[in-house]
Amino acid sequence: MNLRSLVEIVNKGQFIRPILNYVVHYLESDRADKNKSVVNYINVLKLKWDVKYDEALEIIDEELQGLKKGGLHCLFLDQKIYILNRIKQKEGVKKVFDELKDNFDNIPVYVRGLIVETLKNIHELYYEPDESMEKIRYWSKNYEQNLGDKGFILLSKARGKKNEERYDEAISLNIKAFKVLKTIPHPSGMVQALNKISWWLKDVNKEKALAFTFPLGFYLGYYFDDNNFNVFNSLDTMFQVQKNNKDPLVYETAFIFSRLVSSLSGDKKKIIWNEFEYTIHDVRRLVLNIRNRNYLNTKTLRAFIRKEIGKEKIPIDSMNISERTLKEFLSAKTKYIQPNTLRNILDALEFKINTSTPICIIKELKKKDIDKKFEINFEKFKNLPKGRQISEFFTSYFVHYYKEEIDLKKIIKEIEDDSLIEERCDYYTKELVNSIFERNPKINFNSLLTNVQKPKIYTNKNITFNEHPFYLGRKEVVKRFMKDLNKKNLKEFIENYIGLDTKQKKTIEKFIMNYGRYYDLKDIPKEFTPKVAKEINPFVKKYTLKRKPSALSFYVFEGEERAELVEIIGNF
Question: Which CATH number fits domain 144-286: 1.25.40.10, 2.20.28.10, 1.10.3720.10, 3.30.420.40?
Answer without folding.
Answer: 1.25.40.10
